[in-house]
Amino acid sequence: MAKQNYHVILFPFPAHGHITPHLALQARLHQYHPNLTITLVSTPRNIASIRSSLPPTSPLQLHSLPFCPADYGLLSDSESTEDLPSGQFGTFLFALESVCPAFDHFITETSKQSSVCIISDMLLGWTLDVAHKHHAFHSSFMGTSAFGGAVFLSVMMNLPHNHSDSDPLTLPEYPGVLVPRSQLAAHILTASQTDPSTVLTQKLLSTLYKTDALLVNTTEYLDPIGICMLKKTHNLPVIPIGPLVGSSYSSIPTSERESNIFEWLDLHPGASVLYISFGSQDSIQKSQMMELALGLEASGRPFIWVIRPPLGYNAKDEFKDEWLPDGFEKRMKEENRGFFVHGWAPQIAILSHKSIGAFLSHCGWNSVLESLNSGVPIIGWPLQAEQPFNVTLLVDLGVCVEVARGKLETSEVKKGKVADTIEVVMGDNEKGQDMREKANKISEMMKETWKGESCSSAKGLAELLKLIKRVTNN
Ligand code: UDP
Questions:
Q1: Which family, according to the similarity comment (predicted)?
Q2: Are residues 151 and 274 in the same domain?
Q3: Of 18, 366, 394, best ligand 1 pocket probe by most atoms within 8 Å of the beta carbon
């Protein structure tokens, strides 16, 4: 007999860029459906940092799943992709499956009281088996754009790509979409169908074709082609429930100096400062950092740069002067032109400051949504995964210019192009003006998406609730 109370279990992939939109989804679910019980599950360290960031009045419940990364040869504190040295992502995916018994136990207990709805990250496909076992509703959460996610999925499910010389690649599911090979990360270009982590990734992603509903952190006016693409290839409800822009939680404390960012920003005129960040876990080559720095200097514009150690260094390494051109940081500080963050930046607040005029970004989807939500145009430097396809979408929307692509030694970055692109996007010219207008328009539309009961994303949540009731009552 179906139970009348519903318990939503959110299970994000343990990485900042995945946890943040799940938290934003929880906030929207509680706003529009206050009677739902919602629990977010994750590994112990992630649960502890989320707990410390929640307001005391938050109705969100948290549940910790025991996790022993050391059993898989990972460092014992590797509970998030931010902690991983490069090359260990595949091992981390395998290790995460080890929380399955604890997750299963939690669902067993929860199902005794309520009808359960699991909303799990697209990279946690094994949760579907647990849902089936307990006759629970299951939906996969795609935290990418629909366009980026659809292209990425097609690329990943049609491996290998090293068998032909055709450039661009054509995608069997989407004949109209051409993918230049230069948009694919090296490990995808060389991946074989027998490589264990590729096999696992394909298995996890195949859940996206079998789940009860596919939730996508996007919206019709931003991403109409991508939504159509997913609807064409996925014979199940595809529900845009975005844009979900959170009040970003931080697992890394912001230092006192970094909290002076806003005083520094206040000193600059409106839309004059460039913000630069490559997300919560990625980085570029030292040689690329050098060229970027020289381009910034040549541009003459003020900037905030969130500097993570370049590739090849440990993510937790202290900043080293040798990563930047001689005397660069000192010169930029003396001229009051550069603010350097060697750690964690309060990104959402920075992007909403009136002095920010553009965002040089790796185009992770959260960064994109946060930028557009604040009406800030983007200078794209995609590094991996679906990021290059996000750039294609953004360029089509008229809010982005690509400045560089990739993080290999061979991925070319030229200081002249950096300076010229900054000038195009931030300068007083027709293209820059047009990009700013379009970004502002999108910002207005994004705010409309969540206004009132009949707004489009609230309708998406209502559709989800209806499906949960239908599936769990059968
Ligand atoms: N972020 C932040 N401060 C930082 C770096 C990242 O607040 O110094 C946040 C950013 O606001 C965004 C998330 O981390 O919400 C990054 O997600 P995104 O999808 O852009 O990229 P990822 O890190 O997953 O590659």
A1: Belongs to the UDP-glycosyltransferase family.
A2: no
A3: 366
Question: Which is nearest to 43 in space by CA: 81, 79, 92, 94?
Answer: 79
Reported as a single tens digit per residue, the pLDDT across 333-356 is 999 999 999 988 999 999 999 999
* Ligand 1 center from residue 241 Cα (angstroms): 20
Say if 42 falls within a structural domain: yes
Q: What is the pLDDT of residue 474?
A: 66
Given a cut of 70, whether residue 253 has pLDDT beyond it is: no
Please check whether residues 141 and 38 belong to one and the same domain.
yes
List, for residues 152-184, the tens digit of each pLDDT value.
999 999 998 887 778 999 999 999 999 999 999
| Whether the Cβ atoms of residue 131 and residue 137 lie closer than 8 Å to each other | yes
Query: Are 456 and 442 in a shared domain?
Result: no
130 shares a domain with 21? yes
Which residues form ligand 1's pocket by a CB distance below 6 Å?
15-17, 20, 248, 277, 279-282, 306, 344-345, 347-348, 364-367, 370
What's this model's pTM, rounded to 2 decimal places?
0.96
Residue 1 in any domain: the answer is: no
Q: Using only C-alpha atoms, what is the Rg of the chain? A: 22
Based on the fold, state whether residues 276 and 419 are members of the same structural domain: yes
List all residues 6 or more positions away from 332 whose beta carbon is below 8 Å from its beta carbon: 296, 297, 303, 338, 340
Residue 251: the pLDDT is 52
Residue 309 DSSP one-character state: P
Claim to verify: residue 145 and residue 205 sit in the same structural domain: yes
Does residue 112 sit in the same domain as residue 165?
Answer: yes
- Residue type at position 278: F
**Statement: residue 456 has pLDDT above 90:** no
User: Where residue 262 falls among pLDDT bands split at 50, 70, 90?
Assistant: very high
Contacts of 263 (CB under 8 A, 6+ apart): none
- On whether the CB atoms of residues 146 and 226 are closer than 8 A, the answer is yes
Q: What's the domain range around 292?
A: 256-446
Residue predicted with more confidence, 128 or 81: 128
- Domain containing residue 409: CATH number: 3.40.50.2000
